[in-house]
Amino acid sequence: MTDTSETRLADSAAHPIRQSRLLRLMRYLPLIAPVLLWTVPCWLLLHTGQHWPLPVTLAGTALFALGLIGMPLAMVRGHGRRQQDRAAIVGDTLLGTSWVLFTWSLLVGVPLRLALTVTGVGESQDRARIVTWAVLGVTAVLLAWGYAEARRVPRVRRLDVQLPRLGAGLDGTRVVLITDTHYGPLDRARWSARVCETVNTLEADLVCHTGDIADGTAERRRAQAAPLGTVQATQARVYVTGNHEYYSEAQGWVDLMDELGWEPLRNRHLLLERGGDTLVVAGVDDVTAESSGLAGHGAHLAGALHGTDPDHPVLLLAHQPKFVDRAAAGGVDLQLSGHTHGGQIWPFHHLVRIDQPALAGLSRHGTRTLLYTSRGTGFWGPPFRVFAPSEITLLVLRSPQRTPTP
């Protein structure tokens, strides 16, 4: 049997390797991805045995070429220095469209063509055209459905979470989690108000926002974020920064949330008390905070828990699931996170799992620590969600000491 310490050493050695591979991949991704996303579908749908009329071939190829050139340009204008919202909308939409088209060109186009060939259906050109129309049909349906999924008010996901150290007085504590609202180029002020109305129907004791409020500065996205000021909780509303805050003047978002009546838990905690029992509610800055160069920002669990009673259970807010390694080492009972979006557009979740220990839902880490990872309340960039629905989460905390319901 392998010694536990050896296993941990092997795991810790493998982690930097995985990180370095991801960093190398990300370095070349902006150059490689647009080419693959547009040329592969173009070749499979227009240039592999179809023999379309010349005007169709030329027009189709021109559209793919326009996407290949236009998408990066729009992304740079929209998300670079100029921050042009219209350009961002165009670039983000093209990115999502090309990803879905690329994915299903491979997953539908290649197997379908093989199946038609094996069964001898039609001539080669007929088979190729059947494949093209099938891929375009699947892509259109998924994009329409994915757009509707992204823009709707998230469904409420409810689950009971038992914390062994939670006192009976806190049994039934209702914690609502929203995260990754990503207010951005598409104005979602009405959507934001409806999300907050839904949260208010849940009668929460504690409402948490685990970061990535918006893409853009607090001044620019204030109108979309303003409904957060209407959220109600019997005990507290708490917030921690996400990585996107550090792309757009994080301190401005901390100040705005404070202005809206939320408690920014920047490496600090508060106590939630009921029935003679206490729950420590702590929060840390996002793990990218320190490298942002913003003075006073950084993820410090020791600071967040300073002065707490080690016998009290701890609920920790940390934007990225990968902070759970530190949370487990620090004896945290439950960590709430977002960041992953559940992959947002399938099968992007495979890339997310390279960087994060969990994609969505409840998972255990170490002997004590539970991690709940939300798929996010909004969406980032491409206005689509495909097989990764958004959520508002209601977690009901349970104590093993509670009196069973008759």
From TrEMBL:
Keyword Transmembrane helix: yes
Protein name as it appears in the record: Metallophosphoesterase
Transmembrane segments: 28-46, 52-75, 87-110, 130-148
One Pfam family per UniProt: Metallophos
Alphabetic keyword roster: Hydrolase, Membrane, Metal-binding, Transmembrane, Transmembrane helix
PANTHER family on file: PHOSPHODIESTERASE YAEI (PTHR31302:SF31), TRANSMEMBRANE PROTEIN WITH METALLOPHOSPHOESTERASE DOMAIN-RELATED (PTHR31302)
Superkingdom of the organism of origin: Bacteria
Lineage of the species this protein comes from: Bacteria, Bacillati, Actinomycetota, Actinomycetes, Kitasatosporales
Organism: Streptomyces coacervatus
Domain Calcineurin-like phosphoesterase: 174-342
Xref: SUPFAM superfamilies: Metallo-dependent phosphatases
UniProt-listed InterPro entries: Calcineurin-like_PHP (IPR004843), Metallo-depent_PP-like (IPR029052), Metallophosphoesterase_sf (IPR051158)
